[in-house]
Amino acid sequence: MTQQLLRITPSCNASQAMPISADRVLAGAPQEVIHNLFTNSKENFFCGVWSSTEGRWTLNYTEDEFCYLIKGKAILTDAAGVSEEINSGDAFVIPAGYEGTWETIGEAQKFYAIYEES
C-alpha cells in the first residue's frame, strides 16, 4: 500500500478545548486543544497541533516529544528549578523522564511529534 504525504497545518477547527487535569494545575484554569493528525501503525508515534490558554501545570514525561512553538510564549521549569523561556518560532525537545512545569503565558500553540517506547 502506498502512503501519501500528510501536511500538518496550525488549523485546529475540528477540536474542542478541554481543561488540563485539575490534579496537575498549579495556577490558572488552563484549557488545551489536542488535534492529533497522525498515529503510526505501531501506535507509538504521534504528531499534530496542540494549543492552550494561560496557566501552569506539572509535567511528567514518559515519551520523547519534539515541539515547534507556532505562536505564543511558554516557560518550562525542570525539577531542579531551571527555567527556559520558549517563544514563537522556537523548536525544542522534551525527553522521556523530564519532570517539571509548563506555564503558558497568554495563549500558545505548537506542532508536536511524540515517540513513546513500546
- Which range best describes the helical content: under 10%, 10-25%, 25-40%, 40-55%, 55-70% or over 70%? under 10%
The CATH homologous superfamily of the domain at 36-115 is named: Jelly Rolls
Strand content: over 45%
- The CATH class of the domain at 36-115 is identified as Mainly Beta
Q: Give helix and strand order, one letter per element, not per position.
A: EEEEEEEEE
The N- and C-terminal alpha carbons lie at a distance of: 24 Å
Strand-pairing-aware structural class: mainly beta
- Count of beta strands: 9
Find the CATH topology of the domain at 36-115. Answer: Jelly Rolls
Q: Count the helices. How many?
A: 0
Rounded Rg? 14 Å
Shape: globular
Described by strand count, sense and barrel closure, the largest sheet is:
9 strands, antiparallel
The overall pLDDT, averaged over residues, is 93
| Uncertain runs | none
| CATH architect. name of the domain at 36-115 | Sandwich
Pfam families: Cupin_3
Domain (S)-ureidoglycine aminohydrolase cupin: 42-112
Protein name: Cupin domain-containing protein
Organism: Pontibacterium sinense
Q: What topology does this entry show?
A:
Elements: E1 18-19, E2 25-28, E3 31-39, E4 45-52, E5 55-60, E6 64-78, E7 83-87, E8 91-94, E9 99-115
Antiparallel strand pairs: 1-3, 2-5, 3-4, 4-9, 5-9, 6-7, 6-8, 6-9
If you had to describe this structure to a student in words, what would you say it looks like?
By secondary structure, the chain is mainly beta. It has a domain at 36-115: Jelly Rolls (Sandwich), CATH 2.60.120.10. It has no helices and nine strands. The chain has strands at 18-19, 25-28, 31-39, 45-52, 55-60, 64-78, 83-87, 91-94, 99-115. Strands 1, 2, 3, 4, 5, 6, 7, 8 and 9 form a nine-stranded antiparallel β-sheet that branches. A hairpin with a 4-residue loop joins β6 and β7. The chain is globular, with a radius of gyration of 14 Å. The two termini are 24 Å apart. The mean pLDDT is 93.
